[in-house]
Amino acid sequence: MTRTQRQIEAHRKGTLCIQVRDRAGGPCAGVAVWAEQETHAFGFGCVAPDLGALPAFDRQRCGARLAEVFNRIVAAGRPVDPGVSRYDVPEGARLGRVRVELDRLAVTGLPVEVHVRGRSVGPSGGPREAGSRERAAAERVAELYTLCFAHPAVRGIFWSGCWDGEEGVAGDGLLRCDLAPRPAFHFLRKLIDTVWHTRAGGETDADGLFRFRGFCGDYRIAARVGEEAATTALFPCTSGARSATGGATRILQLAGPV
After folding, report:
1. CA 130, CA 193: separation in Å to the nearest integer?
2. Dihedral, CA of residue 49, residue 55, residue 60 and residue 61, to nearest 10
3. Percentage of residues in the chain with pLDDT exceeding 90?
4. Given pLDDT bands bounded at 50, 70 and 90, which one contains residue 247?
5. How high is the pLDDT of residue 80?
6. Would you say residue 151 has pLDDT above 90?
7. Predicted confidence (pLDDT) at residue 258 exceeds the cutoff of 70
8. Which of 72, 157, 169, 173 has the lowest tally of Cβ within 10 angstroms?
9. Are the beta carbons of 193 and 208 closer than 8 angstroms?
10. Nearest-angstrom CA–CA distance, 204 and 173
């Protein structure tokens, strides 16, 4: 496991412990349980593009595209929250320099919000054929996001200039003028929705407990006995829960008889 993977494991994951109980409050052993992550605690955000010149259908289309990747869409000019440090990734930034700057900001003890634009990773730069340039840029985007996601001081990453139709974006957006996604968009979606996404399944033990380790966020938990309808609930998974019981035990009480 690399240093970055170890940091992600340590700072972006937690252990969720569920106890399944029957209607009388007793623990249920051998019950099938499934867990699916619904939200991320980490902020994968973007600045809302100005779509005023587009017809309503395309505005909806763009919003749907952005929602495929980002869990926070904020207004342009939004000030950083009090007690939070802002770091703007410079144009053509090297990862080593970004890590040094994040370490420097972390010394203050304040959480860090990272802001990035397409030109920070250079999607439109370089002499190579456009497709090769865009794939290389997508790889740099993935590397930058992985670095920031692994850094314990960073609480979110925000992309400005998502759409090529915005003033000053000039080919550096995640979406082209016709709203078709660039490779960087697909790379980010795979990272957030697949690589950094947790599903788990199994059966409760003799004490009615089901434990799993996953990325921090909210989880939809479902438990079912036999042909009964599944009982579901939404529970948070937070970082630092690494004890044998996974911190506070969440109770899922079956609705039907066992």
Report:
1. 27
2. -90
3. 73
4. low
5. 84
6. yes
7. no
8. 72
9. no
10. 46
Q: Alpha carbon 54 to chain centroid distance?
A: 29
Q: What is the mean pLDDT of residues 122-144?
A: 74
pTM across the whole model: 0.90
Query: Any residues with CB less than 8 A from the CB of 3 and at least 6 apart, and which?
Result: none
pLDDT in tens, 62-118: 999 999 999 999 998 888 889 999 999 998 889 999 999 999 999 999 999 999 998
- Other CB atoms closer than 10 Å to residue 225's CB: what's the count? 18
Distance in angstroms (rounded) separating the CA atoms of residues 254 and 249 = 16
The token pair at 79 is 């000030």
- What is the rounded average pLDDT of the residues 216-237? 93
**C-alpha–C-alpha distance, residues 231 and 20, integer Å:** 10
Inter-residue contact 213 to 13 (CB < 8 Å): yes
> CA–CA separation, 170 vs 199, rounded Å?
39
Band (129; pLDDT cuts 50, 70, 90)? low
- Count of other CB atoms within 10 angstroms of residue 205: 14
Distance CA 121, CA 139 (A): 9
User: Which amino acid, one-letter code, is at 55?
Assistant: P
What's the count of helices (H) and strands (E) in the chain, helices before strands? 6, 12
CA–CA gap between residue 164 and residue 176 (Å, rounded) = 5
Name the residue among 44, 8, 42, 41 with its Cα closest to residue 235: 41
Q: What is the chain's length?
A: 258
- The DSSP symbol for 230 reads P
- Dist CA 10 CA 239 (whole Å): 8
